[in-house]
């Protein structure tokens, strides 16, 4: 914690003038992790001479967990703007996040402003894309929920009024839940049935369901790594 949170400073810098948050990925020991890319710019006023550091805070909204990072500048910024005339800007992309979750991002310039009701910080809310996003689906958390699984789902009505459903199981041993919704000609109300099966081999699996005219099949794997959070796949005939 910066000392300005405990002791009021005589002079303090202005809040960041611009704050942008984007999704990003970071390679860590061979794993691709989802992170936030936080970019902010310093206000172009005289208070820049009192900028001594910055505190970043990221709050995960659904569980109220917060992580922070503080950076202390070794030297003051020499000019109000960069030598090329642009505003001073900074970037940080090491906060690991969960796909699909909302975060509150705050950038606080240090020393902290001690005036009650006033702040020299800037905040914004950002929701990380879920595992359907092309970039996120290749990260480790999404891969653990089956984001790269291509089941090749197929359904076929047989002569004995049953339904042949087939799909390619994932490489990991898992329990699969197959939910079938069908609309027979003689029924006005749809018929639904659910089957739980276990599969440990890697060749395509087939089984029979005694229903006809299938409208929609959904497949939900239950792997050890993701339990009920695994990605469901839907097939409509």
UniProtKB/TrEMBL annotation:
GO terms for molecular function: interleukin-17 receptor activity. The keyword Membrane applies. Residues 1-143 form the IL17RA/B N-terminal domain. It comes from the Eukaryota. It is a single-pass type I membrane protein. InterPro entries: IL-17_rcpt-like, IL17R_A/B_N, IL17RA/B_FnIII-like_1_sf, IL17RA/B_FnIII-like_2_sf. Gene3D superfamilies: Interleukin-17 receptor A/B, fibronectin-III-like domain 1 (2.60.40.2160), Interleukin-17 receptor A/B, fibronectin-III-like domain 2 (2.60.40.2150). It is found in: Cell membrane. It holds the Pfam family IL17R_fnIII_D1. Keywords: Cell membrane, Membrane, Signal. GO terms for cellular component: plasma membrane. This is IL17RA/B N-terminal domain-containing protein. It comes from Chelonoidis abingdonii.
């Amino acid at each position: 914690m910066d000392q300005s949170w405990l002791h009021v400073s005589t002079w303090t810098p202005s809040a960041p003038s611009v704050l942008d948050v984007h999704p990003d990925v970071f390679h860590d020991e061979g794993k691709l992790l989802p992170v936030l890319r936080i970019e902010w710019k310093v206000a172009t006023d005289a208070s820049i001479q009192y900028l001594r550091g910055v505190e970043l805070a990221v709050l995960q909204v659904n569980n109220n967990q917060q992580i922070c990072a503080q950076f202390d500048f070794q030297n003051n910024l020499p000019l109000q703007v960069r030598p090329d005339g642009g505003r001073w800007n900074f970037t940080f992309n090491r906060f690991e996040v969960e796909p699909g979750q909302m975060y509150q991002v705050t950038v606080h310039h240090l020393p902290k402003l001690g005036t009650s009701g006033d702040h020299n910080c800037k905040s914004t809310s950002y929701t990380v894309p879920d595992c359907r996003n092309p970039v996120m689906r290749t990260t480790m958390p999404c891969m653990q929920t089956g984001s790269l699984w291509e089941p090749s789902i197929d359904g076929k009505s047989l002569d004995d009024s049953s339904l042949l459903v087939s799909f390619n199981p994932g490489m990991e041993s898992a329990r699969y839940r197959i939910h079938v919704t069908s609309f027979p000609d003689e029924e006005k109300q749809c018929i639904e049935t659910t089957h739980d099966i276990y599969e440990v081999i890697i060749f395509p699996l087939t089984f029979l369901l005694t229903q006809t005219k299938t409208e929609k099949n959904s497949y939900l794997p239950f792997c050890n790594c993701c339990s009920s959070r695994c990605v469901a796949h839907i097939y409509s005939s």
